[in-house]
Amino acid sequence: MGCDRGGCGGLEGKKMRREEGKRLGAGALAFCLSMFSRSCVLAFLLSALALGPICGCESARDNSGMANAYFLDRNKDLAALGRVALVEMDNMSGYPQISGELADALYLEIQKQQIFGLVVVRQDDPAWRTLQENVESLQAMTQLAVMRESLRSNGLLLGAITQYQPYPHMVISLRLKLLDLTDGQLVWGVEQVWDSTDKAIQKRIQKYYRQQLGSEHTSLNEELVIVSSLNFCKFVANEVAATLQQSKEP
Question: Which pTM value belongs to this model?
Fold first, then answer.
């Protein structure tokens, strides 16, 4: 049974629309599973059922360019974490030095937000390999107390540099998440690509330098961000850290 140009009608049309809705829903769930572990997604769904609406990607209010790139549980008070262990990112690129540069930049930018304290777990720390290898099981209740005790932190921020390209143009791709070690819940996460040839990224770099340097801002500063890994990491870290700020709006 076909459809005319005006669309499908009657019972057959309703059936087709239901099937289309199922396919769209399955696609959305597949995206969530690829962005976070299955245990994190389950935690998010259970929180949504128990606590009501959770603000995820704050696309309605976020005009910074990070809309739809992050999740933030507004029912959680991030300040209550007190102290968070920032685990130096796993590095999937061929440039090992970028992990340390980005960890340093994130440490400074997150500290500026004045939400919680930070301690950095470096790749040369024996605990680093354990955390990376057991990330999928960290939310097991039997391990949470051990993690809190050993890290002396109530939160765990970890993830990976999924892509880094210094030339022919700068590209950084990140996947990060923040776990509450008091209950194993996912409270924040980011997955984004920053490509220096993207016009929207270039406009955000201009805005970043206007905010950082004020009247001293020049086009040369913007060029330095695009060609310098250190400066590009600072820009990326600035955008990531800003997503931790919880909106006061209902």
Answer: 0.71
